Amino acid sequence: MQNWQRLSRWQAKLLRIALKKHRISHAYLITGARGTGKKAVATLLAKTLFCEYPEGIEPCNQCNMCKRIDSHNHPDVHWIQPEGKTIKKEQVAHLQKEFAYSGMETNKKVYIVSAADTLTVNAANRILKFLEEPSKQTIAVLLTENSQSILPTIRSRCQVIDLKPLHPQRFKQELMDKGISESQAALVSTLTNDMDEAFRLNDDDWFAQARKTMVQLIEALAESVNDAYLSIHSQWESLFKDRDQQEMGLDLLLLGFRDILYFHMEKTASMVLFQPDGEKINRLAIRFSQEKLIFILQLTLKAKQKLKQNVHPTLVMEQLVLQIQG
Description:
The chain is of the alpha/beta class. The chain has helices at residues 4-7, 13-20, 38-50, 64-70, 89-99, 121-132, 152-155, 168-177, 182-191, 195-203, 205-223, 225-239, 243-264, 279-287, 290-308, 313-325, and strands at 27-31, 77-80, 109-113, 138-144, 159-162. Helix 8 (168-177) packs across helix 9 and helix 13 (243-264) crosses helix 14.
């Protein structure tokens, strides 16, 4: 379970001090790259405010309030997430209507806006009006990977918390200190900078299968286009069902091809998916030249962009296979 101590990031220091001194701002803008723990910080803040049995600023993580916040089922903690590509004005209007009433179980209310950079112009203006007329019992938390897309007028009304990622080597060591194996710590520390997500990935059977599947896809790509197509239609569609899983699959594919490139460059200490002394990596290095690998990495990054643009994931993977084999 997440707590302030386990978060262990200096960027959250301002929030910890504010909580200790009971000087919480009416609005926060939490920025940072994927995996830096934005949602974890927002959830932790809400639990600290509502927890029935806190120890100082640390929530108990066991009471009814904490559990309902974790499950997004607390009536006074509202999450707004994009519907499709954007957060629409109707979603904010509904929130404003809800907040016109006092809290159902306490006198406090918290609303958390995920991907705040996807607010439409009308939705952003409605949020701005909300921020301009703050209630003492209402706290807004806006989360974004792209702070430059947030209206300056919104930014100026929020306390900005910028979550910089820990250096992967430092994060890897933290994971090893907490009992994760060196090889697994090396892998997950390249995929996330959030402690809770790292532990979830380490224990997740789906992640283990995803890793195995993407290694098999790389091997299939080294052999024939038919093998790669078979891998996509027999495994990709059934295993990588939602957008987060599909992006994770492409991240693993990137790491696999990067490993082969590192093997060429004799940077084996930086490899995370393949063993540097195995027969498999030798065979793949013969199949893929450095120039080809750089081309494949560029293609895979473009495939990730297509996913974000809502191109059908199977079509994205089929095109990627054809381009790699071309």
